[in-house]
Write a structure and sequence with these properties.
Largest sheet: 7 strands, mixed
Keywords: Lyase, Pyridoxal phosphate
CATH superfamily of the largest domain: Type I PLP-dependent aspartate aminotransferase-like (Major domain)
Pathway: Amino-acid biosynthesis; L-methionine biosynthesis via de novo pathway; L-homocysteine from L-cystathionine: step 1/1
CATH architecture of the largest domain: 3-Layer(aba) Sandwich
GO molecular function, one term: cysteine-S-conjugate beta-lyase activity
Enzyme class: lyase
Distance between the termini: 55 Å
Order of helices and strands: HHHHEHEHEEHEHEEHHHEHEHEEEH
Oligomer: single chain
Organism: Rheinheimera tangshanensis
Length: about 400
């Protein structure tokens, strides 16, 4: 089944939808049973999408979990209240005091904070590594290295990682390989086909797609799913049925939305490359982007998220650029239908293992579904304000 068709049908079995097109929103805490036999059955199968207790899920959650597993080829799917919770749960499911974690240096800032604050406080050591290290990561493996964590591309600076090469090292050392695949989604990147053990997504972004719900997802292969499932449950994580429903609905248009985001973003990225104020554009589909050859090999397309670096500009000039936008809104997150803009004036402070080669400010864009002529006009006006403030 082709991915576009799979997105329409996944998670829509009659056991979840009945006679309706979409699964209903089933909100529940307590699940009641008529007989001891029913209770015994539910208890024995409480991790297998059998109604047991609200925190284990309802039909609404099970429908989404089925869909994600079908799309990814994973053995199981756990849901969390946000993407950061999914990252935290995945790490804590496989790390304990005295363990060592290898974390990519370009990782999402909240993930770095989890490592430096929460994990460090639990006696778990983190070593950050260059995203372009590839098979060279074997030199960083220690006897107590339990997890290697990838984010490809990096959600600020867009370097691509060689997932198959790192997977081969992880398997040789019996180390769990995790990937934050929020950028790739199940549509653009086959994480399990490349050798990942645990795949994490902030479904808040492209899966929900409308900036109106927060949800995290972590899936695992057959070997690692039982541990991820039980530890996530023990940590108390769960997600609302309403948010799970919105994610299921978002899946149906995911491929067509990504295609339009890709088209729009590439137009804007190519336009920015021609601006004299721009030092570089970081977009995985551009040949100049670090790891572009990996992008061509592993991904089937791109989306709306990329960044660019200005040759110069202080905080005042960057504020003038960003403030006063008509179509780009200033805000965190991405993946909705709207265009977003956010600055980073000190990217080097977020890296410890790999140097950032530019001194100018970085600006990250999420290109939404607006007409690109309007977005470019917005950026032209921003550059005019930028020059006036220099």
């Amino acid at each position: 089944m082709k991915k576009a068709t799979q997105l329409i049908h996944a998670g829509r079995g009659k056991e979840w939808t009945g006679s309706a097109v979409n699964p209903p929103v089933v909100r529940a805490s307590t699940i009641v049973f008529d007989t001891m036999a029913e209770l015994k059955h539910a208890t024995a199968h409480r991790g297998d999408r059998v109604p047991y207790y609200g925190r284990r899920g309802t039909a609404t959650h099970f429908a989404l979990q089925d869909a994600i597993c079908d799309l990814e080829g994973s053995a199981g799917c756990a849901l969390y209240p946000c993407g950061a919770a999914a990252i935290n749960a995945a790490l804590l499911s496989f790390l304990k005091q005295g363990d060592h974690l290898l974390m990519v240096d370009t990782v999402y800032e909240p993930t770095r904070a989890i490592c430096d604050k929460l994990l460090a406080g639990l006696g778990i050591e983190t070593t950050y590594y260059d995203p372009l290290i590839g098979a060279g990561i074997s030199a960083l493996i220690k006897a107590n290295t339990k997890v290697i964590f990838l984010e490809s591309p990096g959600s600020l600076t867009m370097e691509l990682q060689d997932i198959p090469a790192i997977s081969a090292v992880a398997k040789a050392h019996h180390t769990v390989l995790m990937l934050d695949n929020t950028w790739g989604t199940p549509v653009l990147l086959d994480a399990y086909g490349l050798g990942v053990d645990v795949c994490i997504q902030s479904a808040t972004k492209y899966i929900v797609g409308h900036s109106d719900a927060m949800l995290g997802i972590a899936t695992a292969n057959e070997k690692h799913w039982p541990q991820l499932r039980e530890y996530s449950y023990l940590m108390g994580y769960c997600a609302s049925a309403d948010d799970a429903y919105l994610a299921s609905r978002g899946l149906r248009t995911l491929k067509v939305r990504l295609a339009q985001h890709q088209t729009n973003a590439f137009i804007v990225a190519k336009w920015l490359q021609q601006r004299p104020e721009v030092e570089t554009v970081r977009h995985p589909a551009l040949p100049e982007n670090p790891g572009h050859e990996i992008f061509q090999r592993d991904f089937i397309g791109s989306n709306g998220l990329f960044s660019f670096v200005l040759k110069q500009g202080d905080a005042k000039a960057v504020a003038a650029f960003i403030e006063g936008m008509q179509h780009f809104k200033m805000g965190f997150s991405w993946g909705g239908y709207e265009s977003l803009i956010i600055p980073n004036l000190s990217i080097q402070k977020l890296r410890t293992a790999s140097p950032w080669p530019y001194s100018g400010p970085l600006i990250r864009l999420h290109i939404g579904l607006e007409d690109t002529d309007d977005l470019i006009a917005d950026l032209i006006a921003a550059f005019e304000r930028f020059h006036q403030a220099l």
